[in-house]
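Quick one, probably user error.
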């Protein structure tokens, strides 16, 4: 592991004869004793009869002690200083990944704890593997929140992340007969050693009922919410340590509970179900990540989830603010709240409710405070992904919040009309209430109205937002719009995931680069050093051997680590175009079938990703990938030149094995559809070359890496729009491209479905007659670019130079830089050093 300069006063090395503080000492003997004490006193085990899981728990508790010591120092110093403004990151998802490894790296005791565990007689890697990954997110959104939590602490920005403690996270994925099967993610079944429950800080949240007005003794009219019922939010705190600093923030996740979990009167009357009914209904709110919202019950639960965690968080922040002497109307001076997509945007109305109803603040003052508090990150260019909730559902669950939204909208539309008189279209588009077909609350519009800043997450994404999705808002508030390109933490996705590369980089350019990723530029001259290239290639080869072993364990498929590892791992969605990759595989397969002796670069195609349970087309794509693999992998003509693998249950843990092993990174979404992407950054940092479209952050990766070190293909976003305007005809392309026609016909003939010609017909019909994501248009460009990839692969020295150059030029894509951008452009906060 990359070692950093110690800045922690307690991080001293004691002699073997003495022990440091059992809670904070960092030397091997003290760590070993700390593990033994936690093993005995918390797990009830001794070293001779312990299980691997018990030992993992004890190691984690020992590490948590050291994190909590720093967290207390940080938060005490922060709240003692009334000039410090904290960042609150509100996100419905936090895909944190396993915690033990990164916490050891941040504390600079990875090697010490490894030695302590091994001296106790255990395999450290097996202990690490015991950790259950909290699946508290679907993908990029939640993983970005986790990277930003890491970087906020590492940049010494006081911050608290707020979210939901889902009892069951995103499903575990199994593959049966080629199909995705969802299994319950029971991440809490053995306990979570990183969190501390704080029931004494519980908060009540209103639901249902009605709003009533009243006049106080001074003759002022106010409103109060008379709820049908309340749900209790219990906070669970997890420390978030910074790298090479003393700062430690925390993540606060809310669990829902009943105000009263047991109704004795119902029990005594013999109604045993009613006695616990309230408990079950309340706990359902945080039971599962993103319930299926196709049905009204799912929609109701999802809106309840969003309001529940937002209300808990806003009330919690106000409580902290008042406890340290703040005034309600000065809330924005203590807190900068970032809305991570539209899920938490109801926070705008909730803060207004607190200021108006609980603290009797005048509307104009309350609105000024609210707007100065919030900023909003948009993550999508797909209009259908911008959340809307029916007014009827809002009125049923959140009557007072709906009243406030109506008033916000009324006042705002008067401003719009004054600014753009007579523009009925603009009034309709900018209204928080969509009345084009029924009445719906537009959550993105609410976020835009109530925020002082709005940002996209890549340069192209931000420009397309300005031109299309949020064009009216840019005309109204041009000063509010910014770009902050996403980033990823190198501590997890390089230092922890790729120890071989970390060791090589540290030996070559020093040990400070994990906290200052821009220092990777020092690596660039080594691209022309034959000795370094050889070491770089060996690291890559070792990573590929490791992944090949895992592939055999998980899928039974044997792959050649000397082949090109061509990898596409991300959420399964039509716009991400995993099926375009399949068309390319089949093109190569047909070349072999036509001429079995053809010279072809050996490739292992590795897919991974989960399809939303209700998204049939995405599930069918997974089935197609596996069906093609069954045929290609077992065809004697192929002779192992092509292998197709679907790596099941893609998550953070598995990603840490996959990214370092990639030779080619597939970033092939339709131009103009991907907001940013972060997998593209993780691959490039680990020495993979990218084949991609000009979409999302691909554009900036190409700019940084250099055009000559990036395999570009496909229509641009503007060309996509122009092609559609001119009457795009995918069937014409099919008719006039012999290779494409043969590939599609082979699928339709049942060649990959045991003769079943209907199985994949929904996919091929969509491509032939609609093709909304332009696969047919990009197919010939993609195949030609892949041929260039193959030619380049044959020149090993050139490939390695390109790969090393990619690593050297990826400093921009650290999440540390993203957080620095937020601090300067949006939050207006500075580091607070402990």
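Nope, works fine. Designed sequence:
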């Amino acid at each position: 592991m990359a070692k950093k300069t110690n800045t922690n006063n307690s991080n001293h090395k004691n002699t073997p004869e003495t022990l440091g503080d059992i809670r904070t000492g960092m030397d091997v003997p003290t760590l070993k004793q700390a593990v033994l004490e936690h093993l005995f006193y918390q797990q009830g085990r001794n070293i001779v009869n312990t299980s691997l899981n018990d030992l993992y728990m004890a190691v984690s508790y020992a590490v948590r002690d050291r994190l909590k010591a720093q967290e207390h120092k940080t938060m005490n110093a922060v709240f003692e200083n009334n000039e410090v403004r904290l960042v609150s990151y509100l996100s419905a998802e936090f895909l944190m990944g396993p915690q033990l490894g990164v916490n050891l790296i941040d504390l600079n005791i990875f090697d010490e704890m490894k030695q302590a565990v091994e001296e106790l007689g255990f395999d450290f890697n097996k202990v690490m593997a015991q950790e259950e990954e909290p699946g508290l997110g679907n993908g990029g959104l939640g993983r970005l929140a986790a990277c930003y939590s890491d970087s906020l602490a590492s940049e010494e920005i006081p911050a608290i992340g707020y979210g939901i403690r889902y009892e069951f996270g995103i499903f575990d994925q199994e593959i049966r007969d080629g199909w995705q099967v969802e299994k319950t993610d029971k991440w809490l079944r053995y306990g979570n050693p990183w969190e501390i429950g704080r029931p004494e800080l519980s908060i009540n949240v209103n639901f249902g009922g009605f709003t009533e007005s009243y006049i106080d003794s001074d003759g002022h009219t106010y409103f109060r919410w008379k709820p049908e019922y309340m749900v209790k939010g219990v906070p669970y705190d997890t420390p978030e340590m910074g790298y090479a600093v003393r700062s430690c923030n925390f993540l606060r996740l809310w669990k829902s509970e009943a105000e009263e979990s047991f109704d004795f009167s119902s029990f005594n009357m013999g109604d045993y179900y009613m006695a616990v009914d309230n408990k079950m209904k309340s706990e359902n709110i945080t039971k599962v990540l993103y319930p299926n919202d196709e049905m009204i019950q799912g929609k109701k639960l999802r809106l309840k989830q969003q309001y529940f965690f937002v209300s808990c968080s806003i009330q919690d922040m106000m409580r902290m603010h008042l406890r340290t002497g703040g005034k309600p109307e000065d809330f924005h001076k203590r807190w900068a709240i970032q809305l991570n997509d539209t899920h938490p945007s109801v926070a705008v109305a909730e803060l207004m409710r607190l200021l108006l109803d609980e603290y009797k603040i005048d509307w104009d003052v309350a609105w000024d405070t609210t707007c100065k508090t919030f900023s909003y990150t948009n993550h999508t260019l797909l209009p259908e992904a911008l959340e809307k909730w029916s007014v009827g559902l809002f009125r049923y669950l959140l009557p007072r919040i709906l009243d406030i939204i109506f008033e916000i909208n009324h006042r705002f539309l008067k401003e719009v009309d004054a600014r753009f008189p007579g523009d009925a279209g603009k009034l309709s588009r900018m209204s928080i209430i969509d009345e084009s077909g029924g009445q719906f609350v537009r959550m993105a519009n609410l976020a835009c109205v109530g925020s002082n800043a709005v940002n996209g997450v890549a340069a192209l994404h931000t420009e397309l937002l300005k031109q299309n999705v949020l064009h009216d808002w840019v005309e109204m508030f041009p000063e509010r719009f910014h770009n902050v390109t996403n980033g990823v933490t190198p501590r997890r996705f390089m230092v922890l995931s790729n120890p071989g590369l970390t060791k090589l980089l540290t030996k070559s350019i020093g040990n400070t680069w994990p906290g200052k990723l821009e220092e990777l530029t020092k690596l660039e001259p080594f691209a022309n050093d034959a000795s370094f290239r050889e070491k770089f290639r060996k690291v890559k080869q070792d990573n590929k051997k490791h992944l090949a072993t895992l592939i055999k364990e998980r899928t039974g498929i044997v792959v050649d680590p000397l082949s090109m590892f061509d990898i596409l791992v991300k959420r399964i969605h039509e716009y991400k175009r995993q099926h375009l990759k399949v068309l390319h595989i089949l093109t190569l397969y047909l070349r072999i079938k036509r001429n079995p002796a053809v010279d072809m670069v050996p490739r292992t195609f590795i897919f991974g990703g989960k399809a939303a349970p209700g998204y049939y087309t995405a599930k069918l794509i997974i089935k197609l990938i596996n069906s093609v693999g069954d045929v290609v992998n077992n065809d004697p003509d192929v002779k192992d030149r092509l292998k197709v693998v679907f790596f099941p249950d893609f998550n953070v843990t598995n990603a840490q094995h996959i990214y370092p092993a990639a030779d080619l990174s597939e970033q092939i979404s339709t131009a103009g559809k991907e907001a940013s992407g972060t997998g593209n950054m993780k691959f490039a940092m680990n020495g993979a070359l990218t084949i991609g479209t000009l979409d999302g952050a691909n554009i900036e990766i190409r700019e940084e890496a250099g055009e000559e070190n990036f395999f570009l293909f496909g229509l641009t976003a503007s060309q996509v729009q122009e092609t559609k305007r001119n009457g795009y005809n995918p069937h014409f392309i099919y008719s006039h491209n012999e290779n494409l026609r043969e590939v599609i016909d082979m699928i339709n003939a049942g060649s990959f479905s045991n003769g079943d010609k209907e199985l994949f017909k929904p996919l091929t019909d969509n491509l032939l007659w609609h093709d909304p994501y332009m696969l047919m248009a990009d197919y010939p460009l993609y195949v030609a670019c892949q041929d260039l990839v193959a030619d380049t692969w044959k020149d090993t020295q050139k490939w390695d130079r390109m790969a090393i150059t990619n690593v050297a030029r990826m400093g921009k894509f650290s999440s540390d830089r993203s957080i620095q951008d937020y601090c300067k452009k949006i939050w207006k906060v500075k580091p607070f050093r402990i």
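The longest strand covers residues 229-241.
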